[in-house]
Q: What sequence folds into this?
């Protein structure tokens, strides 16, 4: 964990030297983040340690569909507003220092603050299968209805569902502190 991280909204093309070891996230940051932000599709925040880019998170508005047993009796609606953590990447030189957890905490706090102005009950994300246990440790749980729909779609298109991203959510109300 780095104590003096600064969270800045992306304000132009990102630095080219970032590499998190995951091509999808690295390429997204380098080629799509700024364009998508200009098109109002998402917003990217850079996590900096001094002048070094340590990590980034990209957020967008979304929603989640939940079974009745997933949302509990107090929520009457199947589709509920959510802030989506669309991308997260930690530069290789900053990995295994708790920065990913700091980034997720930043997103949760931003969602908590935003929920006072608009309907936002959850933070959602699509985790790579190998990252599901890590997100579970942070308080995220699997979205069963979303995942069932994803599996049916994959099978109907001839894809194997084993490598599908895992739809997960963090309940802001449940974790209100």
A:
């Amino acid at each position: 964990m780095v104590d003096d991280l600064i969270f800045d909204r992306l304000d132009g093309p990102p630095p080219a030297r970032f590499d998190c070891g995951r091509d999808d996230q690295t390429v997204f940051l380098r080629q799509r983040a700024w364009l998508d932000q200009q098109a109002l599709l998402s917003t990217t925040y850079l996590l900096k340690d001094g002048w070094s880019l340590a990590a980034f998170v990209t957020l967008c508005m979304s929603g989640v569909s939940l079974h009745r047993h997933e949302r509990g009796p107090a929520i009457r609606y199947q589709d509920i507003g959510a802030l989506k953590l669309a991308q997260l990447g930690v530069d290789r030189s900053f990995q295994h220092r708790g920065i990913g957890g700091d980034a997720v905490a930043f997103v949760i706090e931003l969602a908590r603050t935003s929920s006072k102005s608009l309907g936002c009950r959850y933070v959602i994300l699509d985790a790579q299968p190998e990252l599901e246990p890590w997100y579970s440790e942070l308080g995220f749980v699997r979205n069963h209805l979303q995942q069932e729909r994803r599996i049916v779609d994959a099978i109907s298109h001839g894809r194997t569902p084993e490598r599908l991203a895992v739809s997960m959510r963090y309940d802001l109300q449940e974790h209100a502190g």
